[in-house]
Amino acid sequence: MKFKIVHINETDSTNRWLKENGEGEMVVVAGYQTAGKGCGTNSWESERGKNLTFSMLIHPEDIPANRQFHITEAVSVALCETLEAYIYNKVEIKWPNDIYVGDKKICGVLIENRLQGAEIKDSIIGIGLNVNQRVFKSDAPNPVSLYQLSDLETDLDELLIRFLTEFDSAYQCVTTPIAYRQRLYRKGKDALYRDQTGTFTAKLMNVSSDGRLLLVDQDGSERRYAFKEVEYII
User: Fold this and answer.
1) d(CA 56, CA 125)
2) pTM > 0.85: yes or no
3) What angle in degrees, to the nearest 10, is found between the helix axes of 156-172 and 69-83?
4) Residues near 123 by Cβ (< 8 Å), separated by ≥ 6?
5) Residue 199 contacts residue 233 (beta carbons within 8 Å)
6) What does residue 198 show for φ and ψ, rounded to 5 degrees?
7) Which of 234, 181, 226 has its CA nearest to residue 205?
8) What is the DSSP string of 132-150?
């Protein structure tokens, strides 16, 4: 994909900015977001000028609406591949699209797909990547940045271009769904989760092609969840 890259000093949300101003394949990068959003009601802390906060607009004409989870797979795998060029730590995907190093969150993703019948009209992909921030002051439980992991400053423009290259590759690669599942945080490990019935221990087994999480609890029962139906206890 060939992206038009637009840099803006400040906005409340790069996703909202693209909804109002986006055309073609476009990336908008903000020096600062006054109301950066995660999924649902979550917010995103980012020190001005220190991190990579941007959104992408794509028009995935070759992906039907019932396979829209492939966009999540491609973005997540591309982020892992990008970050592993800068650090030696293992980078994993906390379903569906948070990027983790160990038990700490280095990147959050918010994908908004607009559908038109059985097709995806367009997709806006918002990404908040902790890069050069040294101290986090919010009550977010587990943030980490590239600087904290490497003790080095990273060029934000270089990092963006590397990610866009990795995304283009992952988007087109037929093995991306496999790579996504191989990188799942907690895969095959017993861990604590919480759903509407309470807290339980289970083993993360897989993610279906439509994005549902498959857990197997200690009784051997399978539990399948759509996004926001289950919470990781960290």
Assistant:
1) 5
2) yes
3) 130
4) 57, 58, 59, 60, 68, 71, 111, 112, 113, 114
5) yes
6) 130, -165
7) 181
8) S-----SS-SSB--HHHHH
Report the alpha-carbon distance of residue 213 to residue 128 in Å, rounded: 23
**pLDDT reading at 40 higher than 90:** no
- Other Cβ atoms less than 10 A from the Cβ of 149: the count is 19
Instruction: Return the half-sphere exposure (C-beta side, CA atoms, 13 A cut-off) of residue 214.
Output: 10
Strands 52-58 and 231-232, by their bridges, are unpaired
Tokens linked to 147: 């600087």
pLDDT tens readout for residues 152-187: 999 999 999 999 999 999 999 999 999 999 999 999
* 85 burial type by CB count under 10 A (0-12 exposed, 13-18 middle, 19+ buried): exposed
Phi/psi for 160 (5° steps) reads -60, -45
Cα–Cα dist 167/176, whole Å? 10
SS3 1: coil
The mean pLDDT of 77-82, rounded to a whole number, is 98
Residue 219: other Cβ atoms inside 10 A: 7
Going by C-alpha positions, the residue among 37, 9, 6 that lies closest to residue 23 is 6
**CA-based end-to-end distance of the chain:** 37
In contact, 100 and 106? CB cutoff 8 Å: yes
